[in-house]
Amino acid sequence: MTGERRGQVFVVGMNEFQRDQLETVTHADQMDFHQLLPPEVVTRPEHRFADLLERAREQLDEVGGSVDAIVAHWDFPTSVLARVLGRERGLPVPPLETVVACEHKHWSRLEQRASVPEVTPAFAGFDPFDDDALSGIDLDYPFWIKPVKSHSSQLGFRTESARDFREALAEIRERIRAFGDPFNEVLGMVELPEQIAADSGNCCIAEQIISGDQATVEGAMSKGEFAVHGVIDSPKDEHGRHFSRYEYPATSMPEQVQDRMIDASERYLRHIGYDNAAWNIEFMYDEHDDRLWLVEANPRISQSHSELFVKVDGMSNHEVALDVAFGRPPRLPHRRGDFTVAAKCFLWTEEMDDGIVRRVPSDDEVARVVERFPGTHVRIAVEVGDRLSELADQSSYRYDIGTLFIGAQSRDELVEAYGTCREMLPFEIDPVSLPAR
Predict the structure, then answer these.
(1) Domains of the chain and CATH, by start
(2) pLDDT at 163 (0 to 100)
(3) Strand bridging mode 69-71 / 143-147
C-alpha cells in the first residue's frame, strides 16, 4: 500500500468481531473495510446463489470507486461469491473450478485420490433419492454419510446398519435441497469432471470412518508460490467425541507429521490448479498406525482461526488474504502477540437432547470472566426461550450454545482457564419430551 489513496477492501459476511481483527493488519490505517452482504444472509441456505450474486454486485456498484480486495472466510456460498466477484473486477483469484472442487465433497475426494492417495479415505458417492443407493456403497460398517455440500456437519450421520442408512436418508431427503439447490446453480457455471453430474449438489458421499488427532494447516498460494502460516490443533473433549477447541500453535503431532501434512497440502493444491488465494486443509493422524488422513480442503482462510493468530502472532490471518489480493508475498508475523498459545473453545451441550433455554450467563458473569482472563472474548449463541432443536446451523450430534477465545502463556494454563470459564458461565436448559406449543 502507498499513501496515494486508500485501499477498498470488501469482506463477505463481515461481523463486528472480524472488523476489529482487520484493524491488526499491516496498513490498516490506509484501508477502508466494507461489509459485503450481512453474515445472516451468506450463512443461511435459503437464498438462490444468483440472487446473492446480484445483490453483491449492486452493493459494489453503490459504493463506487475501486475494489481492491474481496475477502472470504466462510464456506459456500461466500467462498464462491468472492471468487466470481473478484474475477469480474479483475482481481487475482483462483480458477472457479478449483474452488468448487474443494467445496464439493465428492469431487474433492476424487482429486485427492488422484494426487494424494496415501491420505485419502475410502469413499463412494451416491444419490440419496435412489431407493437402491446402499447397494452401490462398497464400504464396511460403520461409515459416515453426508451431503456433498452442507454446513457445520449438518446432515452428517454415522451409519452402523442398513436401518441407520434408511433412517438417515429420510432426514437427508427432507432437508438436503436447502444447500443443494443453490450449489447446483454454481455447478452449472464450471466445467465438471465426468464423474460429477451437473445436478449433484443434492447428492451425498459415504466415507470410511477415520480416527486420530486432528489438526489444520493454513496457508496461501500466490502466483504459484506455496506458503504456510500456521498449524492449528483440534483437541476433542474428555469423552473423545466432539471438538473442545481449536488451539494454536499445534503441539499434538510431531514435526515430521506436520511436514507430511504440509507436503500433502501442496501436492493436492498444485494438482487442482489452485492459486491466488488463501486455504486451509484439515488432517487426522492415527499415531498407532502412523497413518495420516486428509479430512477436507477449504478454499479460504478460517474465521475461527483469525483471533488465534492475533493473540499469538499479533496479527489476523486476514493479512495473508490481503497480501495475495494486493500482489505481495503472503506473510504473517511470528510470535509477536500477547500470548504463547490461544484457542477458540466451544460451549456445547453434552448430547443432542432437545431442550428449552431457561438461563444464559448474565452480562456481569461475562464481565467477570473477561476481568479474570484479560483478552478473552465470550460469545453466547442462545437466548432465554430458545428451543435447541430449532436453532439454525447446528450439527447432527450436539448443540452450539457459546464460544470463548482465550489466550494463555502455556497449554496447561489455557486448559485450566477454559474449565474455569465454563464454570463461571452457567446455562440452564430444561429437557423437552413433548412437542413445542
Answers:
(1) 7-99 (3.40.50), 122-208 (3.30.1490), 342-437 (3.90.1170)
(2) 97
(3) unpaired
Instruction: Supply the DSSP symbol for 107.
Output: H
> What residue spans of 176-317 are helical by DSSP H?
177-187, 255-272, 306-313
Instruction: Give per-residue pLDDT as tens, 106-126.
Output: 999 999 999 999 999 999 999
Position 239 confidence tier, pLDDT thresholds 50, 70, 90: low
- Alpha carbons 188 and 199: distance in angstroms, whole number: 8
- C-alpha dist (Å) from residue 70 to 32, 45, 89, 114, 229: 12, 21, 10, 31, 20
Residue with the three cell numbers 445483490: 55
Report d(CA 93, CA 222) in Å as an integer.
Answer: 9
Predicted confidence band at 62 (pLDDT cuts at 50, 70, 90)? very high
Report whether 88 contacts 56 (CB < 8 A).
no
Contact criterion met (CB below 8 Å) for 118 and 285: no
- Rounded to two decimals, the pTM is 0.93
Q: Which of 284, 312, 115 is nearest to 209 (CA)?
A: 284
Check the CA dihedral 83-86-91-97 and report its sign.
Answer: positive
Query: Cell numbers of 9, please?
Result: 477492501
DSSP 436: -
Q: What distances in angstroms separate CA 98 from CA 26, 108, 259, 263, 362, one per listed residue?
A: 29, 9, 24, 19, 45
Three cell numbers written together for 32: 477502508
317-321: average pLDDT = 96
If you average pLDDT over residues 284-298, what whole number do you get?
Answer: 96
CA distance 300 to 76: 10
Are the CB atoms for 316 and 297 separated by under 8 Å?
no
Q: What's the chain's average pLDDT?
A: 93
What type of residue is 29? D
Average confidence (pLDDT) over 22-40: 94
Residue 348 to residue 239: CA distance in whole angstroms: 13
**Are 402 and 379 a contacting pair, CB within 8 Å?**
yes
In angstroms, the Cα distances linking 402 to 74, 183, 231, 302, 346 are 18, 29, 24, 18, 6
Angle at CA of residue 197, ends 195 and 201, nearest 5°: 120
273: left (phi over 0), alpha (psi -120 to 50) or beta: left
DSSP 230-268: EEEE--B-TTSSSB-EEEES--SS-HHHHHHHHHHHHHH
- DSSP string for residues in 309-329: HHHHHSS-THHHHHHHHTTPP
